[in-house]
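Risk register update: the risk of archive-format incompatibility is retired. Evidence:
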Amino acid sequence: MSFFFCINLYTLRVNTLLDGAYAMDDKRTLLLLQRGLEAYEKLKNKELHYVYLKNGKYRELVFTPKKEHFLHLCGLNYINPKTNKPSSAKDFYGIVKKGKMNLRNINKGQHSDQKLQIIDQLDALLSCNVRVLDTKTTSLNLTFYRGLRTGKAIFCLALTEADEYKPTGEYVPLSLLDIRRNHFSGPAIPKGEPVHCVYLVHEKSREVEIISKNEDFVTYESRKNYLYEGMVATTD
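Archived output:
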């Protein structure tokens, strides 16, 4: 009798721990999605220009993320409870923003948890502490030709042409890679080229807003005028 009682107590304790672990995991998933969206909101619907130095010359990468690209960075699908089909990328963004997610409808992929652990750091793309990848890069089953990565090995954002049929030179998110040394098992991501300036071009006015510059770019501009792709606001 006492032996049976001990076994039941042990089983109850194990089940309680497991239930608690799953509950914590679910809460963390929602929390990281919300934090990721908050970081992405700072980038969404902006025309961001990254001025980077390669072979002694300045070049630019234009990044124009939209809300429908957020889903690609999460590595999961959300099943619409009404249709029992995956939600569209735009609908998914709205569901996360409104906080109306049903945990039972989240289908995670192989790398979902890794992506969610770094997605809240996307606002690092608003500084010069990033580097541009502008050559063919292959990681696991993913090949891309443009990317943005953190200077330290934290994340790499693979990019693709905004319009693959009519290339405009603008790029949007394709996938988010966790490149932390203890998490990344694929081929090493190249270091890329250093970003010296990040600026925003406002859609309607086409005015330029400087977001970040490093000391090298400040020194460069003290000697030469940089030709921004927009109208630099002047002050009297």
